[in-house]
Every structure is written in structure tokens, then in C-alpha cells.
Amino acid sequence: MKPILYAWGTPNGLKPVLLLEELGIPYELVKVDIRAGEQKRPEYLAVNPNGKIPALVDGERHVWESGAILLYLAEKHGRFLPTEPQARLDAIAWLFWQMSGVGPMFGQAFHFRMRDEQIPYATARYADECKRLLGVMEARLAEVPYLAGAEYSIADISTFTWVRNAPRLGLDLADFPNTRRWLADIEARPAVGRMLAVTFP
Ligand SMILES: N[C@@H](CCC(=O)N[C@@H](CS)C(=O)NCC(=O)O)C(=O)O
């Protein structure tokens, strides 16, 4: 039975799309239109009580929160999560860093930048925090090719779908050459092309 992914074409929704495309396993994609509020319907809340995308149902298993979905799939298929103990811890730490830092801060930066009513303090606060986080990953990527070290992992997948939007948030990557190298490296992966080919009407 194919896993069913409930998602929409946002950074959190695209993370499991990218991992499933990397894994090359068949899956069913159920598009949950968050603009129409479909993520708040009772039938969806039965899958994800938090009323947000993404969520995954895989036979008898169901899992929500994009980081948990990535961990579940990586462990199940034995790919994109290093097995060497320290590299595995590094991958999990950077995944949690993305989930607790990059996702929420980039999300709020986008929210306040797009509002009709501009609140300069909030806009600057989240933009500054995004720049700080970019600095943290820039320093890491000056030392190693990928966030967990030598191997491309779910830490990179989860961070990529957010950081690729940095220019749209007005975040200039000129001072982050290693992050640009990392972005270009991941953008060149065939699975990213397949992820981008998925349309969300
Ligand atoms: N921490 C959650 C965040 C999920 C999330 O914020 N999803 C957004 C789209 S990127 C959503 O469903 N927004 C609609 C809403 O909040 O009602 C995860 O990573 O799965």
C-alpha cells in the first residue's frame, strides 16, 4: 500500500515531497488547500490534530509534523540519516534547529513582510533572526559540505525548502557564499526538479 502524503506547496509541505522523491518510492499526494481552510476540516484533524500540513498515513502508521515525517521515512528506508553515531546526532540536531528556528522565523518574517499594515519592529526582528540563522549555517557549511557533515541528509532537505526562499524575503545571500554553494548543489538534484514539477493549483 502506498503512503499517503497530505501536503500543500509551502516549505513545510514540500519537505516530505522532496524526501519521497529522493527515496523514489510510489506515494499518493493529497493536496490540502490551506487557502480554503481544508486543514481545519474534522477528517483532516483526525490525521493531524494541529490542523496544519503536512501529515503522512502509511498503512497502520500515521505521523504529523514535517520533521517527524522526515525522521520516520528516513528510518524506515534507511536513507538520508547517517548511521555513524555522531553524524546521526548532528543530522537530528540540525533537523531540530530547522524545525525550531528556520521554519518559525522565516515563516514569521514572510508573514510580517507581506502584511498590508507594516510593523517595522516585527519585520526587522524576524529579518534579523533569519540573518542570524543564516550565519549559523554559513559557518557550518564553511567546514563541511552538508549540515550533518559529509552526507546529504534530512537536515538539508528540511532546511532547503525554506532557505531557497531567502531572496523572496529580501534576504541577500551575497555574504553567505557557502550557503549559496549548498543551495546550488541541492537545486541540481533531480529530485528537486521532480518536487518543483508537482503543481498545487
Ligand atoms: N511545525 C509544523 C508547521 C506546519 C505549518 O506551519 N504548516 C503551514 C503551511 S507551511 C500550514 O498548514 N498553515 C495553515 C494554517 O496554519 O492553518 C510542521 O513543520 O509540520
Short structural description:
By secondary structure, the chain is α+β, with helices and mostly antiparallel strands.
Please characterize this protein's 3D structure.
By secondary structure, the chain is an alpha+beta fold. The protein is built from eight helices and four strands; from the N terminus they run βαβαββαααααα. It has helices at residues 11-23, 42-45, 66-77, 85-114, 120-143, 154-163, 177-187, 190-197, and strands at 4-7, 28-31, 55-58, 61-64. Strands 2-1-3-4 form a four-stranded mixed beta sheet, with helices on one face. 35% of the residues are buried. It binds glutathione (GSH). Glutathione binds at residues 10-13, 34, 39, 51-54, 65-66, 103.
Notable features of this structure?
8 helices, Glutaredoxin, 8% strand, 4-stranded mixed beta sheet, 4 strands, binds glutathione, 2 domains, Glutathione S-transferase Yfyf (Class Pi), Chain A, domain 2, 56% helix, 201 residues, alpha+beta
